[in-house]
Amino acid sequence: MARALSHVTVICSAVALSACSFSMDSLWPSLTGDSSSAAATAAAQAKKAIPIAPSQGEIRNQPLIGAGAPPNLGTTNFVPPAVTPGQSTGTFVGQKTNLLRGELQRMRQQIRQQNSTLQSIRRETGTHSLAYHSAIASINSRLQVGTTPGNPYMVNQWNIAQSGLSSIDRDISQMNSLANAVAGTSTMSAYLLETTRAAYGLSGAVEADHRQLAILEDEVNRTVVLIDRLLNELSEDINRQTAYVAAERSNLTALSLAIKNGESLGNSLANRAYATAAPVAAVGRNSGTASTAGRRPLVVIRFDRPNVSYQQALYTAVNRVLQRRPQAGFDLIAVASGQGSAAQVTVASNKSKRNAETVLRSLSEMGLPLQRVRLSAITSGDAKSNEVHLYVR
After folding, report:
1. Into which CATH architecture does domain 92-261 fall?
2. For residues 196-206, b (16+ Cβ closer than 10 Å) or e, as one string?
3. Where in the chain is the domain with CATH 1.20.1050?
4. Calpha distance 313→10 (Å, rounded)
5. pLDDT tens-digit map of 326-381
6. What is the mean pLDDT of residues 278-284?
7. How many CB atoms are closer than 10 A to CB 35?
8. Alpha-carbon torsion 109, 115, 117, 123, what sign?
């Protein structure tokens, strides 16, 4: 078991909340397989601080991927009342009032249809959310008790969850189309209100015409308010659901990595990285060498054998940093062994770069925005095998 875990060294950074500096908090076990008492003592102390392989009880206490409830949709039922019938006065203004009343009746019927569409979309969204969270709960329950990597049942459940989330995305598209229709109705209501008020200035009216115009104006005003409330609530539904789907897509990506490994890592790092992060200066992949002078790596991954298991330790270390500094950036450095002939060093350099790209993909699958990671490569004569180092920037 010691050999299986002997390829990842994690150093935890206690990152200060003020300024941009950070100090080293505690040393994680080097996991080099050293049987000395000093190494055993350091490993025991590190396990007390941050367990790399949590027990079943600890896993149950972790937040589950995609386990958050969907945002609440609006509950208002926008049903306009019937239009007050009018009486014919035989005047031109009376005829104009009847025409405006007919326009109001048609507009209110349109609002009823739009409200019916909204309530139908809300019911469908609730059904799709239930299907999505049922699939996610099934996956998380399997991950809690442990499962095989790439379990076909869990892959199928993941596909069901993705389909459910796509259905919610289609519901959002329908809400957007409905919002455009309601916006058109809002424009028509504003025009109807202006026309009704202008009818007061027409000549040839009797007192009954103005009384009916006053009633009509009040009803148009109430309709304008109703449409505004419908549009506002619909916009809130769209904004909440859009943010929810974006976060859950990130969680699904992280969940696919957990299924691949057969163990739960945690929520997508993007959830924390984007929630309160301040803008970070754009950094890209750097072909040069990032300065490591005076810095200690957050994570050291030694690729001295095939299929090195590093994901859980990597996720835990990065997640802890983002809890304290959501705006943190990272330097990912491919360290190639400088031992051997020039040809051997070249081969080792290419392999170390591929290993760093693999780690970079893992960080992306965990939800870490790639613009926060700067990639570089160095050759070290002290390294006995190819390594990948991750530094906090």
Report:
1. Up-down Bundle (1.20)
2. beebeeeeebe
3. 92-261
4. 7
5. 888 899 998 888 888 887 888 888 888 888 888 888 888 788 887 888 888 888 87
6. 34
7. 7
8. negative
